[in-house]
Design a protein that fits this description.
single chain; 139 residues
């Protein structure tokens, strides 16, 4: 289905390019406004080209929207913080390294807001903040 719409979309694009190139320039911005001797000089044919271009532009807009909707249908939102709930952990790692119960709300951000249990990672107590500013020392 998507391939058919893309082919139709490309045909509309090529027809629009051709119609725009056939139209007479009305501004004459670069001094190439065209003389009176070109083909399709009557006002009626210019009107047909303008209407056809507008119709093709509307169809182009519709096919663009349809293609973007079709591209987003199969896309599912994924979280980079909660990643891999459906995948199994390797043999050397625990299945739930965060320590929260499976299905319980709270990912990495919630744990950071509440503070990790036990202070620093690994259960070691968190270092206390210095009482006054410290000067960096070379090692």
């Amino acid at each position: 289905m998507q391939t058919v719409i893309i082919v139709i979309h490309l045909m509309i694009v090529s027809a629009m390019i051709g119609l725009v190139l056939l139209q007479k320039s009305e501004g004459g911005g670069l001094g190439m406004g065209g003389g009176g001797g070109g083909f399709l000089t009557s006002r009626g044919s210019s009107n047909v080209l303008t209407r056809t271009t507008a119709i093709l532009a509307g169809i182009f807009f519709a096919t663009s929207l349809l293609l973007s909707i079709l591209a987003g249908v199969d896309r599912k939102p994924r979280s980079i913080l909660q990643g891999g709930q459906g995948t199994e952990a390797p043999a050397g790692q625990p299945a739930n390294p965060g320590g929260t119960a499976p299905g319980a709300p709270g990912g990495l951000l919630d744990r950071l807001r509440q503070g990790a249990p036990g202070g620093a990672p690994g259960g070691a107590p968190a270092p206390s903040a210095p009482a006054e500013p410290q000067v960096p020392r070379s090692q």
